[in-house]
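Office hours follow-up: a student asked to see two folded examples consecutively, so here they are.
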Amino acid sequence: MSGVLDQLAALLARFDEESYVALANRGLVRRARKDLEQQRAELIEQSATQVVVGFGAQRIRFDHRGPAHAQCDCPASGMCQHILAAAMGLQQTLQATAPAAEAAVAAEADPLAPLQAALLALTAPELVRHAGKAGYRWAWQYVQDLEPEHALLISGTQHLVLGLQRPRVTLRYMGGGLDALIADAELAQIEKYRVAAVLAFQRAHGRELTPPEPTARQRNQALDLGMDHALAEPRDASLDESRARLRGALRKILAESVELGLAHLSRGIQERYATLAVWAQGAEYHRLALLTRRIADHVELLLERAGGADELRLLDELSIAHGLVCALEAAAAKGAAPRHLVGRARSRYESAASLELLGLGAQAWRSPAGYVGLTMIFWSPAEQAFMSCTDARPQAQRGFNPIARYKAAGPWAGLGAPAQTTGQRVVLQGAQVNDAGRLSAADSASATVLPLDGASLVQMLKPWDSWAALCSARGEQRASLLAEPEPMKDWVALRPTQFGEARFDDARQTLVWPLLDGQGQTLAAETPFDEYSQHAIGRVESLGPAALVPGTLVIARLRASTQGGVVAEPLSLVRPDGKDVCVDALYFDDAPQLGMASALLERLKRMVPSRDAPMPAMNAPVAPGALQHLRHELQRQAERGSPPDHAEQARAGLASHAERLADAGFTIFRAVLTQDVGAGERLLRANYLCLQCERLMLGESAGEV
């Protein structure tokens, strides 16, 4: 074979069905295979630079880059079914007549090793030539903003599969140069995403990434030639200056608030916070703007003596805002603005091509902001993550009923109703997904519903059967007070060893359903009562031993309990023995019919007064006494204020607490409480540190704002 044919044979040997789908789409691949059944692809010409394949009346030209850059003489632009059919036919011909390339790939101890070596060998100048200086700078910053473990998903057997998470796009690499990376979604600037995938891959393998060339402003600062010789600065110089002044103003008012005393705040303080919130939004500090706006609203509640106002909770909000400002200042000093600290103005939906989803039920709800909606929950086997799709409207808008929406048409083309997704496999084409794992309800996507049995669903889910391991993993996930919220990670599949009897707490208007694991620890599944949850409450109350077979899973959302610890809000049950119906949607489905004997036993059981022994509960961790005493002292000082004539006395009191904490092993407080800063800033730093220590020891319920 010629040199180009050898390269083409090695490249095609790594192609599989999903590779061809990524080149075009599943429908075009299906038509190409049907055409290939009726006529053959013939190799009619080969040279040192190209190979020409005839397929019917068309001529398709390939070079060493493979099908992604093939050219067909048909009128269609871009990828056509003739190119796909010619590539598939040529792949079959080369495997039959010259199996050496196929055998070499199969015989390799690690078939992916040559591909990995090729990506690791790419240098920064090559990446810059592919995407340009601006594209490389974007890709480098993109990789820096992501945590290493979340930047890239690496998989594949015949070829490398590189999955970017934000946006959700998968690139497949069978060999060749950078332009041989095939994406499964249409992207306007595919070059910068290819470079980002390569940089993330190199960082995952321990390579030091070459930073981009400095901008004009950075070169100006490095040279420091004076005003007469200063280089032109980019337009965002004014934004950096505005952000710096905003951070200074926020630090000042945060310290003033606790020095004045949270019980003595005025309308002027509230108006200053409201103004700073608008300023933060204009400076594109979106997360800080949201937190500052919440502080302004909380101060207004205090001024109005509203029932929801709480000085201690406000202190925690002020401490976290101060911590966020300090983190932004530290990042700005390095010339960076991490996205998880800055935030986003609004969520962006990106194309995710084809998604396979497993329907796990739906929930109707009402938000405190006056919205009502219906949320469907799915499990994505490919991403091993939960996803959701919500249809919501303002409560004042007439004609929208979230309960009736469950059986109404949509939201995607081809879907009769959200109810049809429960317990079914849904293949979504043209899906739009945001960073948080939420699916767009736009009807531009099309859904195909396929059957699913309970055994297969249980096998694909990742159920938790140890509550201690679940709480530990959740604590590690949310260890930092400044961690970016990831609401879809609150959803879990639970596999209890035993189900307790559900009881309704009249004082809290909440149904409590004990779930026990193999170690005898109890996780409370709680459902607060409202007009949308009353059906789910009735369903859970009616569940008995006959309705719950061993191995039944509970799909639930975890949240912090007001009484400490973590509780679960149940959504549905997954029955491993279910054939036609494997998911029981508690908010909508009717109770399954029991046999005569089982129904009689359940009736007799409810007629007998229950004498329940207390179930063993999980040991709730408690903060050390010295830490609790410091928290109480900080709260007392913040509530009454720190007048100048009592500053030294207050500082001495905090120093004594620092010594007691040092004796208990918390030596970091000694440095914080003895810093030469203002009284207000010292108090905010110490309270933030208390919240962070409590979060690490007690879990996410500590420091929730």
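And the second, which I mentioned at the end of office hours:
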Amino acid sequence: MDAQDRGQAGEFDSADQWVLNPRTGTYELRLDRSSEQSASSRPRGAGGGAPRPDAQDTGGPRNNATQNGSARTSSSQAEAQAEARAEAGPGPAPGAAEGVAAVSRPDLPAQRSRRARDAADAAIAAGRRKRRPGKPGRRRALLWTGGMLALLIAGGSVGSYLVYQHLSGNIDTIDIGGAGSGGFKKDRAVNVLVIGTDKRTGSGNESYGDKDSVGHAETTILFHVSKDRTNATALSIPRDMITDIPDCVTRTPDGTRVIAGTAETRFNQSLGQLDRDPGCTMRTVTKITGLTVDHFMMADFNAVKTLTTALDGVEVCLAKDVDDPSSRLRLTAGDHKLQGEQALAFVRTRKSFGNRSDLDRIQTQQQFLGSMIRKMKSGDTLTSPGKLWKLAEAATEALTVDTGIGTIERLRDLGAEMAKVDPKHITFATVPVVDSEDGATVLLNKAEAEPLFAMMRSDTSLSEVKHQEAFARSERKRLLRGPRADPADVRVDVYNGGGPQGAAQETLAWLRNDKDVPRSANRGNAPAGVPRTTLEYAPDQADQARALADMMGLPAAALKRMAKDRAGHRPMSLTLGPDFKEAGVSVGGPAEVPDGVQRMGADKRVCAK
């Protein structure tokens, strides 16, 4: 394991390794002579067999002797030991006295053909390739949190083929019938919907009431990771928010069917009710936010218990004493480390903090999850192979995902993308809502929600926006201060530099027909792609630029003033970039987070009160 190179392997001995004996074709466990470890003490979940020597190809550990820079046993020594075993004949393997425990098991390979031995030798040689330098934690895929919790995958540190097979076997999958984007891409923003259900599966959970629940979307977080992986937003969606649930396609053993949508329905009924699957919840979230969801991850009550136990507890802070019979949470004011049943009680309590509403419970869960992220990212976790293995085992057993990420390899790749974000740039936020007339449900606050959704769509960092707000306000005032030209006087050439196909023609039609800008022209594809939409204008076209920026919803950063000697008498140039969605939709998110949006940094320690 990687930690062995740094002397941080804990209970694992860097001399203990499975090696292939070229004479016999069998795998043997090579032990440090001072160790009394036996084959039965291998990490749980290895599928009953030995890790293959080609684990390097799947991100797993290499031969430890190669890692340490010098082989503990030379080929000549291996041959001598093999000859000693041959001369000894039947009986205990003499290698046991020399620090080698020979293993005879039906699930380990016996005599192998020459072709198999050649393949094994090639795999061993491949495993000796030089390791690339890098930060220790980056090789371990990390992070998915939300709702009742979700996932942690420890990729590189426990990544042999047999371990991958074992962990993949833990994962349950659902075919979501074409919902979502079809799969995340490394060069695009990533949206993962994490769903915590109220399904009472697992030992002891039936006693929490409603034991026959089909599993609704009780706690839902849309985890949005920016394209450049510099920031992420974890957006909580209130379960009692009234919304429209669209039609959705579901796959069942009896075939494919369409479940009709319902208007003005509680959001949590997008899952479970009428046999709706997580694909229906994904479609509902897209309808609300305008963000296409790539994948979902779903967990029940057991996830929070098993993951917090694998982490040896998650630290929380309480501003007051709590005694809640409903959730069974009983804690004194101050700091606590919670795991198992106590951790579940903390994220379930609704009568202990704030106004005892579901919105206050969301804030408590966000505080808990922020602490859990910090614990997962800590060196104490990342350098402990034992903890990483327990976390991977617990997470995959508690997890249900869509078929697009239904293998440990795909989860590892997704985790590697998400783990690139520093916790200080992960921000928890909640969809803005207002109370409804019945007092039991809430309604979407469109005035505050739409700017927040636009910021997420444009990858705007909510963690840094506070520092940017004052600058953005002054920039917009400076650039957009002044008179506006009449639409009939606006002259602009429209280019497509990375927007959707046909965007330039669509924009031209919209400008002419909806905004009365007759002096606009479609110039087709731009000479080169642009990272974001830009409007170039000459100094004497500033009034035209302001007018077009107002029409298009362009941020100040999109305006580029050309040098006077370059402008001539040309029209302005509007180049549509990847941030352009469609004509009439503002380009880029607003510079300021609406005042009513609740947010909290994942790196902040907050006491529940």
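Two things to take away from it. The two ends are 42 Å apart (CA to CA). The domain at 469-576 is CATH 3.30.70 (Alpha-Beta Plaits).
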